[in-house]
Amino acid sequence: MIKKVLIANRGEVAVRIIRACRELGIISVAVYSETDKEALHTQLADEAICIGPSSSRDSYLNIPNILEATALSGAEAIHPGFGFLSENSKFAKMCGDCNITFIGPSYKTMDLMGDKANARRTMKENGIPIVDGYEGHIKDENHALDIAKKIGFPIMIKAALGGGGKGIRIVENEKDFINAYIMAKSEAVACFNNDTVYLEKYVKNPHHIEFQVLADSHGNVVHLFERDCSVQRKNQKLLEEAPSTILDEVTRKKMGDVVLKICKIVGYVNAGTIEFLVDDDKNFYFMEMNTRIQVEHPITEMITGIDLIKEQIKIASGYKLSFNQDDIKINGHSIECRINAEDAKRNFLPSPGKIEQLNVPGGFGVRLDSAVYQGYTIPSFYDSMIAKLIVHGKNRQEAIMKMKRALAEFVIDGIESNIDFQFKILNDPDFNSGNYNTGFLNKLVNNK
Ligand code: ADP
Ligand code: ADP
Ligand code: MG
């Protein structure tokens, strides 16, 4: 087993990884920016090294400083968490070149799947269903318009290297297309340093359903069933649940088989997620693969009893999976609410600042993955997600009641949070009936 791991991340995911390391008897090394000197991950890790000024570019994205910190600490492996460098194949390759184990798939797989246009191409070549679209070379905006007309409007323009719900544009009709295309390309350069975009038919109000996978380096692959992440604001997830209310056993089995096939096609190793769009007729289409641990991984842990971060570390240490597909069963129902330091009443404006009072929920079936404490000042430099509240119930109804009970206990004073907004979701009749899709939240926000 790996003996010492450096965590190239911050916030709740860094804390989550430190916890897994400790339970495995592994020494953890945190890295922190100047602002994060007092952050929970800096305090909880066995060792902590400052890697630069507050801006992400100078610290959590600063590859030379992170590699130097790894060398200084003597860590043999790096866990990248999510966001930051987690999907940067150049970073993964440099780790390999420096004899540091990157806890994730090979940089080649990351390259193949990280470019979403490339991933679509690979899926198409292998007969995996994808949404109508175009992922080939686009000469110029007029060429793009011709292609868009063939696919049919409305259409989505997506940045090939996009992520986190960013770099996506919906174009309703032909006359808006060229302008949107030019804007999409310039946004793609600004955000992802690459202007490649691809086109996809806009599926109206689909369900976002994703499958968790684990694959070891000995050729064993399993999936851990699905998560429904259709509660989204601006293509970003806000609440997730597992299992999905809309999948029947036949579709679940079909999708699971496709997921295993995809992993075999790309030679996947470690934890990953395959995201699908599912329409009302239960047709499903590959959307993208995230070659890392995901924000909402805990709900899968709750229904399967498998600790995904520990599995990631074991796989990176060369262990074989200790279970096979038939051993993995869905037990009960789990829901996660992302708790963001945002003001839902002011268009979800980030609300950094000092937490004056904090009372956290607990009790049977309640889990809080958090990065904050009373007296902590949330910096303005990073993502606004400060905690994830996760519940597990014997069925969906119990999970919803438990989440409402836990949210009601949760007090965060000094800053604004989206706790009240999460309540609104949980109280909505459509959510309760399970009859919702990615269009759900827009309706909720607009019918205040
Ligand atoms: P998940 O896919 O795990 O549900 P998100 O899409 O919300 O999670 O992304 C997880 C975190 O990583 C967020 O903080 C998001 O802003 C960030 N992120 C994801 N992909 C990218 C990317 N390509 N570039 C920059 N940030 C990203
Ligand atoms: P990211 O890399 O930012 O996660 P995705 O390609 O996974 O981007 O898309 C993010 C979200 O945008 C999806 O979960 C879905 O809600 C919406 N979306 C993406 N593609 C389509 C599409 N073709 N039609 C309708 N909605 C889409
Ligand atoms: Mg996605």
Task: Provide keyphrases for this structure.
448 residues, alpha+beta, Rossmann fold, Dna Ligase, domain 1, D-amino Acid Aminotransferase, Chain A, domain 1, eight-stranded antiparallel sheet, 35% helix, binds adenosine-5'-diphosphate, binds magnesium ion
Could you please describe the fold and organization of this structure?
There is one protein chain. Helices cover 35% and strands 28% of the residues. The chain is of the alpha+beta class and 448 residues long. It folds into 3 domains: 4-103, 3-Layer(aba) Sandwich (Rossmann fold); 132-201, ATP-grasp fold, A domain (Dna Ligase, domain 1); 207-446, D-amino Acid Aminotransferase, Chain A, domain 1, CATH 3.30.470. A hairpin with a 2-residue loop joins β11 (221-233) and β12 (236-242). The chain is globular and about 55 Å long. Bound molecules: adenosine-5'-diphosphate (2 copies) and magnesium ion.
The assembly state of the depicted protein chains is: single chain
* CATH C-level category of the largest domain: Alpha Beta
Shape: globular
Portion of residues within helices:
25-40%
Total individual domains: 3
Please give the order of strands in the largest beta sheet. 14-13-10-11-12-15-22-20
Rg (C-alpha, Å): 21 Å
Low-confidence stretches: none
Helical segment tally?
A: 15
Judged by helices, strands and strand pairing, the structural class is alpha+beta
CATH fold topology of the largest domain: D-amino Acid Aminotransferase, Chain A, domain 1
Bound molecules: adenosine-5'-diphosphate, magnesium ion
- Taking all residues together, what is the mean pLDDT? 97
